[in-house]
Amino acid sequence: MKFKSFILPTLITLVYLPGKAQEVSFKTEYLGKSGYYYLPPGEKPREKIGDGKGSAMVYQAGVNIPLSKKLNENNRPTVWGIGLGGAYVSLKNKNFADDMVSEIMNLQLGIYHQRPLNDRWSMRANVGMGIFAPNTDFGKISFRNVLVSGGVVFIRHLNPNLDIGGGVAINSSLGYPMIFPAVYVKWKTNGKFDVNVELVDGLDVSAGYEFDNRFKLSYALEMNGQVALLKKDGKDVIFSHQYIVTGFRPEIKLGEKGLSVTGMVGVNLYRPASYNERTLKGMFAGNNDYYFSISPYASVGLKMKF
């Protein structure tokens, strides 16, 4: 199975899994210009696609709003809430013989619920819908651009620092309901030096050092992405844009109210961007491994925790 064939349904599913409760976040990302390549099946070397090059700017925002919350004797919450999120991507592509999507708009709304089942287990469930479009013109939005999603994950609290879980997620990315596996991993060490691994809203792996209660510096690896649903050559297709980035990530806390500024400077390791047919066969096709090569990466963001 191709790596991209796995992460495409995973990314569509993960946008509905609520992350850190009571948090508002904004983030701007820059992915530098690089060449466009095709990776053939088997052991064949990659092939450069003409003089095609591209860069991207990504703007993201999200908020989780708990409607009710209470803690049990183990300090684990029972929460009902609403999650809102959005992303806009501007793709600066040049010298492409075939049409490429130049912008992506993703808007999501979901309801989530989390509750402890006993001392060792918790459950998280969600249902939501979103708009995944290749433009920002709401007059051109149709039912084709809408996805419905839901899922449930059961989480095992192995120790105070490690939670793992699994379950199922359902979405309509292929035009009809499909069931995908859902995975939850959260591991964090404590102290001045900490390691954090999260597969919740995407992949986030970091090792950091807290110099004081205001400044922390980490080295991190992140995976994220966006999708657009559209019609191309008379067929319903998914244009997927994903990226794996790594670099140094500073975080500066401002004041005592939970406001912080974050950033990252590093490299984009892998940025697949291509069309897949909205069919089960198209999802796992072996001829869609087109990607932009390594390029500079930078981001800056703002987070407010309540």
Distance between the termini: 41 Å
SS class? mainly beta
Q: What value does the average pLDDT take?
A: 85
Q: Give the fraction of residues assigned to helices.
A: under 10%
Number of helices, counting only DSSP H or I runs of 4 residues or more: 2
Rg (C-alpha, Å): 20 Å
Report the β-strand fraction as a percent range.
over 45%
Note down, in words, how this protein is organized:
- With 306 residues, the chain is mainly β.
- The chain is 5% helix and 68% strand.
- It contains 2 helices and 15 strands.
- β7 (162-171) and β8 (178-188) form a beta hairpin.
- The protein is globular and about 60 Å long.
- Mean pLDDT is 85; it is low at 1-21.
Secondary structure elements and their pairing?
Blueprint: H1 3-14, E1 23-38, E2 47-71, E3 77-94, E4 103-116, E5 121-133, E6 146-159, E7 162-171, E8 178-188, E9 193-199, E10 203-210, E11 215-232, E12 235-254, E13 259-277, H2 280-283, E14 290-292, E15 295-305
Antiparallel strand pairs: 1-2, 1-14, 1-15, 2-3, 3-4, 4-5, 5-6, 6-7, 7-8, 8-9, 9-10, 10-11, 11-12, 12-13, 13-14, 13-15
Summarize the structure.
The chain is mainly beta. It has two helices and 15 strands.
Output the keywords:
306 residues, single chain, 15 strands, mainly beta, 15-stranded antiparallel sheet
